[in-house]
Design brief:
By secondary structure, the chain is an all-alpha fold. Helix content is 73%, strand content 0%. InterPro entries: DNA-bd_HTH_TetR-type_CS, Homeodomain-like_sf, HTH-type_TetR-like_transc_reg, HTH_TetR, KstR2_TetR_C, Tet_transcr_reg_TetR-rel_C_sf.
């Protein structure tokens, strides 16, 4: 995205995304108008349409920006020179931490994904599938090496872990008894215990 700034020096696309994320989280995607987004961002409708073709594009970018970060980080864990158990544990904990860091984005997306156009919905599903397949490949690598049990199919193990991740926005609270890293460590440990031979 272009780095054009407006007002306070923050790039306009970032301001629009921040405003949209806050409003979508507070009011819901369907109850937030384009006018409310541009007013909250302090820009014009013309500026919004310069960077995003529609409100639908904003919703897609809310999710895509987090997934891009998570994919980059997963690729780094998967490609590292370390034992597969260590790489999987790092990746499993990291997706929890990055989801908690972006809880509004995660909750908006899972509440509002059905509002995406069919084309964008398909695109998002393909992006998620790519992430899950890379994660599953780590599990399969460990299973083939005899480090992880083959008793539970790798697909089911992936669904188990990401089911927990996708529900974080429904219960995790920053002021709760566990830090995000503690939650990440517990969920990663549960995953590895489920794979123990």
């Amino acid at each position: 995205m272009p780095r054009t700034t407006d007002g306070d020096g923050t790039p306009v696309p970032r301001r629009l995304l921040a405003a949209a994320t806050r409003l979508f989280a507070e009011r819901g995607y369907d109850r937030t108008s384009v006018q409310e987004i541009v007013e909250a961002a302090g820009v014009t409708k013309g500026a919004l349409y310069h960077y995003f073709g529609s409100k639908d594009d904003l919703l897609h970018e809310v999710y895509a920006r987090v997934l891009r970060v998570q994919q980059e980080r997963l690729d780094a864990f998967a490609d590292a020179e370390a034992p597969v158990e260590e790489r999987l544990r790092g990746a499993a904990a990291d997706v929890v931490v990055t989801t908690i860091d972006n809880l509004d984005d995660a909750s908006i997306f899972f509440r509002s994904m059905h509002h995406l156009s069919p084309e964008k919905n398909k695109q998002v599903r393909a992006e998620r599938r790519r992430y899950h397949e890379r994660f599953r490949a780590l599990i399969e690598e460990g299973q083939e090496a005899g480090v992880f049990s083959k008793e539970t199919p790798a697909d089911l193990v992936v669904d188990y872990h990401f089911g927990s991740v996708h529900h974080l926005s429904t219960w995790y609270r920053p002021d709760g008894p566990l830090t995000q890293q503690e939650v990440a460590d517990h969920l990663a440990d549960l995953l590895l215990r489920a794979l123990r031979p």
